[in-house]
Design brief:
The protein has about 170 residues and is of the alpha+beta class. Helices cover about 45% and strands about 30% of the residues. The chain has a four-stranded antiparallel β-sheet with strand order 1-2-3-4. Strand 6 and strand 7 form a beta hairpin. Helix 1 runs antiparallel to helix 2. The longest helix has about 30 residues. The two termini are about 30 Å apart. The model has no long low-confidence stretch (mean pLDDT about 90).
Amino acid sequence: MINTFENLAYDESIIVKSRKHILSVLPSIIVFFILLLLPVVIIIVAYFSGIPLFKFPYVNILVLSISCYYMIYLLVFTSELISYYYDLLLVTKKNVISIEQLTMFSRKILQYNLEQIEDINSNTTGFLPSLFNFGEIIIQTAGTKELTIIKGMPYPQKIASKIMELRNSSD
C-alpha cells in the first residue's frame, strides 16, 4: 500500500484511497483462466485422437512450445496484475489524484486541484456493476474539454459525493 506520495504536500493527508473493484477485471480473469487450461485441453484432445505427441522428436517440441507459451502467459498475467494493483484513486483535502498503470513500465498520473473541478458524476451500467456497486467516476475540470473517466471504482457515488463535499468545503 502507498502511504506516502511525492505529489502530496507535507501537511496533506489521504482521505479516500481506492483501487479498482476486483470484479471490474472479471473479463480478464476469465480469459486468463481459459488460456491457462488451453494447452492441457489441446494435449488431451491430441492424445485421445491418436496423434503421437509423446514420441521422441515430438515430445521435445511439445515441451519447448508449452514452456514458451506459459512464459508468455506469465508475463502478460503479471503485467495485468501490476496494472490492477497500481491503479489508484487518491483524494485529499486539496487534490484528486488518479494513477493509472498503463503497461508494466508506463504510468499516467492525473492530478486535479479540487478548486479546478467543475462537475463530477458517477455511472454504474450493467448487471454486475449494479449488483456489486462499482462503476466509473467522470470528472470535468475548468479549462479542459475532455472528461476524465476513472473506470471500475467501487462505490462510485460515495466517492463522487465525497469529492464534491470536499470541493464545496474548500471554497
